[in-house]
């Protein structure tokens, strides 16, 4: 019984620790990539996603998605979409260009991903949006709050998963200790 409980605990911890890694993985691309310029924009501004030749099959349809806070309000390819998804054909060399206008109330990071409908090749890039009000920093680049100028780029989800994983380990150790105590009482 203790071996099964320990095995279940180990599998549970492994799954809990693997979920954040899978969730933040970059899409796989068959040899080429996409980039975005500029990489940092103001809220309501436009950035251009450019995918290298060979990223997709020649002239294949590419499904684009924008994800981020209020990502559904983004404009793709110079027209507004209600769900921040659009489809556009790649060029004859497999390259692609997409203009993305982030929402006027945007902030944080926005991931723009293109997936070829035939090849299933996927690639994307991330644009960082500065807050529209500009109150985050003073004119001399020192933070308005007096703290660090380094942006927070970590995931809050990963911290929760680490706490859950730690709690599962502690719970497993308690179960093992109770099982060992029970065996000692039963043993002659």
Order of strands, main sheet, comes to 1-3-8-5-6
Estimate percent helicity.
Answer: 25-40%
User: Helical segment tally?
Assistant: 2
What is the rounded distance between the termini? 19 Å
Shape: elongated
- Strand pairing plus helix content: what structural class? alpha+beta
User: Unreliable runs, pLDDT <50, ≥5 residues?
Assistant: 23-27, 78-83, 134-148
Describe what this molecule looks like in 3D.
The protein has 188 residues and is α+β, with helices and mostly antiparallel strands. Helices cover 28% and strands 28% of the residues. It has 2 helices and 10 strands; from the N terminus they run αββββββββββα. The protein has helices spanning 2-23, 156-186, and strands at residues 34-37, 40-42, 46-51, 61-67, 75-76, 79-80, 85-89, 96-101, 108-116, 122-130. The strands form 2 sheets. Strands 1-3-8-5-6 form a 5-stranded antiparallel beta sheet, with no helix packed on it. Helix 1 (2-23) packs antiparallel against helix 2. The model is unreliable at 23-27, 78-83 and 134-148 (pLDDT under 50).
């Amino acid at each position: 019984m203790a071996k099964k409980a320990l095995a279940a605990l180990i599998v549970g911890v492994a799954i809990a620790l693997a979920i954040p890694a899978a969730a933040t993985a970059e899409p796989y691309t068959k040899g080429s990539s996409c980039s975005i310029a500029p990489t940092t924009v103001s809220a309501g501004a436009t950035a251009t996603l450019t995918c290298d030749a060979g990223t997709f099959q020649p002239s294949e349809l590419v499904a684009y998605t924008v994800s981020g806070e209020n990502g559904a309000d983004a404009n793709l390819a110079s027209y507004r979409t209600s769900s921040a998804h659009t489809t556009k054909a790649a060029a004859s060399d497999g390259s692609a260009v997409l203009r993305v206008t982030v929402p006027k109330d945007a902030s944080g990071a926005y991931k723009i991903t293109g997936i070829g409908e035939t090849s299933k090749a996927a690639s994307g890039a991330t644009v960082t949006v500065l807050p529209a009000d500009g109150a985050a920093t003073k004119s001399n680049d020192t933070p308005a709050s007096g703290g660090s100028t380094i942006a927070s780029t970590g995931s809050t989800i990963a911290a929760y998963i680490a706490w859950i994983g730690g709690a599962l380990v502690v719970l497993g150790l308690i179960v093992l200790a109770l099982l060992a105590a029970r065996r000692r009482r039963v043993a002659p």
